[in-house]
Every structure is written in C-alpha cells, then in structure tokens.
C-alpha cells in the first residue's frame, strides 16, 4: 500500500508539480489549498506525512501545526519563504520535523520526505516496547496506540488482541490464539467474544480513518493484520 502525503499550499503550481513528482515516486498525494481544509483533511484521513506552507489563507501553517500537535505526532515538513528564520524557529519549536525554503529543488524535497519517514521508522524500531507495523504504532509501556500518528483509545483486551495480530502481519491467528493472548490460557471465555472485540477495533480505527481495512477476516480460520 503506497504511503500517503498531504500537501497543503495556496500556490496551485506547487500543488500540481509536487503532486506529479511524488506520485511518480509511488506516493499517494492529497492536496489542499488552504490551512483549514488541510487540517480537516489530515484529521479525517490521516496521511503518513504532511508538507505545508506557512503563509496560507484561513489558517497559516503554524496554526495548522499547533492544532495538529494537540492530538497527533504526524511527521510535518514546512515550506518557508527565503530568509524567514523566525517562522522556521517557531515551526521547529511547535514540533515540525524539518523545513525547506522556497524556491526549492523538488529532488531535495523528495529526499527530505524520505529522510523524515526513515527517521520516524528508525526511532520506533529502536524502542523494544514500541511495535510499528506500517501505519500502526503500539507503545506497550504506556499502553498507547496510534494510527497514522493519531491516537486510538483501546481497552487492555483490545490492545492485547491487536498486538497479537500485528506481531506477524499477514499470518492468521485463530480465535483460540487470540483468546490466549488477551485472557491467558486458563480463562474460560467463549471464542465468539473475539468477534465482538474485532468488531469494536474496526469501528475505532474507522472512526479515525474511513479507509481502514487492515484487520481481515478469514472465515472459518481466524483473523490477520495486513500492514
């Protein structure tokens, strides 16, 4: 599944040219021409990374980032004007991952996007308590789950079931295996209880991302997570 980039800029030429570049490199791109539309788009269908201009109508890039950071750790790269040091410092202090000055080389922007995505993946992989599978991140120490950088509120049982599925993406887990993971081998629980938990898990993820379909049912066999 291609990684999705949200591109937010009021310059239509930049939206068009950068979209063509990223799509040619295998990314899916969603474009927005003002900050308010971009923020709503990111929150409604979270991408893997956002590239946003600072000076935009309705909401500027700094305001978008400030609101976004209240609920999301989504990687963000700013596009800034030449010699705009103050905005760059403010953006970094608000939690931007990188910035690039206009006018910019598209090759440089592509390299920065890939570098930020790699850093996020490497940081998660270096923590043994953190499990990252594609857009999913599970922090066992803090009992935190995020999907595309946005938090998903899970019960302990839901967290354990999801962790069991995500440990080996693409491999099927039977209901009995998921029961053991969630309740322990000594518990006496109807295996159909797992179906109810899976239904609630899907509902919670779809509330954050309408396109979520990574928890798959194999009828008569069990469930699997497809990263």
TrEMBL record:
Subcellular location: Cytoplasm
One of the record's GO molecular function terms: phosphorelay response regulator activity
InterPro entries, sorted: CheY-like_superfamily, OmpR/PhoB-type_DNA-bd, Sig_transdc_resp-reg_receiver, WalR-like, WH-like_DNA-bd_sf
DNA-binding positions: 128-227
GO cellular component: cytosol; protein-DNA complex
Major location category of this protein: cytoplasm
Domain Response regulatory: 4-117
Superkingdom field: Bacteria
Domain OmpR/PhoB-type: 128-227
Keyword field contains DNA-binding: yes
A Gene Ontology BP annotation from the UniProt entry: positive regulation of DNA-templated transcription
Protein's UniProt name: DNA-binding response regulator
Organism: Elstera cyanobacteriorum
Classification of source organism: Bacteria, Pseudomonadati, Pseudomonadota, Alphaproteobacteria, Rhodospirillales
């Amino acid at each position: 599944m291609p990684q999705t980039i949200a591109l937010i800029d009021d310059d239509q030429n930049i939206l068009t040219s950068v979209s063509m570049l990223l799509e040619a490199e295998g990314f899916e791109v969603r474009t927005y021409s003002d900050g308010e539309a971009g923020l709503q788009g990111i929150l409604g269908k979270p991408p893997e990374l956002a590239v946003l201009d600072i000076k935009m109508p309705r909401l500027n890039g700094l305001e978008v980032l400030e609101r976004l950071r209240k609920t999301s750790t989504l990687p963000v790269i700013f596009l800034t004007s030449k010699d705009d040091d103050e905005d760059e410092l403010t953006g970094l202090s608000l939690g931007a991952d990188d910035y690039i000055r206009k006018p910019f080389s598209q090759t440089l922007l592509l390299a920065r996007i890939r570098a930020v995505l790699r850093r996020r993946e490497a940081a998660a992989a270096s923590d043994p308590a953190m499990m990252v599978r594609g857009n999913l991140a599970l922090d066992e120490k803090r009992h935190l789950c995020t999907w595309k950088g946005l938090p998903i509120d899970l019960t302990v049982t839901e967290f354990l079931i999801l962790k069991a599925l995500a440990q080996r993406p693409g491999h099927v887990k039977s209901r009995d295996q998921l029961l053991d993971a969630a309740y322990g081998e000594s518990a006496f629980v109807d295996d159909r209880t797992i179906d109810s938990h899976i239904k609630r898990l899907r509902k919670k993820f779809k509330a954050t991302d309408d396109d979520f379909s990574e928890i798959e049912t194999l009828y008569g066999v069990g469930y699997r997570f497809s990263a």
